[in-house]
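Case study 2.
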Amino acid sequence: NIENFTAWLSDMDVKAVCICPRRFDYMAEMVDKVIKTKLPLFLSGGGIEPPEECITMVSVDSYLSGRMAADFLYAVNGKNIKAAVFGNSLENITVYKKVYAFTEWLKKYGVGEPVVLEDNDNKEITLENIKTLLAAKPDLNSIYVSNANCLPIVKYIEESGLKDKITVVATDYSESIKGH
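Prediction:
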């Protein structure tokens, strides 16, 4: 909650702020609020241009994330990969790089291109996408989720009795995924 966050900043003896958001769409608003406090700002993540007021920004290499997902799924399933990749929007450069790398590395391994699905970080769209995907591609055995919206996918796979058939790799973590 951004309002609680900025209230907390004003109540505490804070010397600097490091923002490591769970989702990038929260980052821009948080960054704006911190900049107004005049506190030193460090960013960890990506998805926005670092503002002038930012001391430093460390970003996860999105291309490497996509490649690592392909590497892992290849190690698990070999050339038998039948894959799909979920992302919030390919217009987001971070998501685009993850999906691009994933697709390119699957090609390098001699595996066909994955089905690419966008969900705009909407759980209802994600759930509909996974249902439609599994009905159309019953041989699917690998899913890469390039955003933090993997819970609907994992739950549906479990509820459908496909947990031992489909390997899911997610490069963003959400507390809600614990136990799945």
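The chain is about 45% helix and 15% strand.
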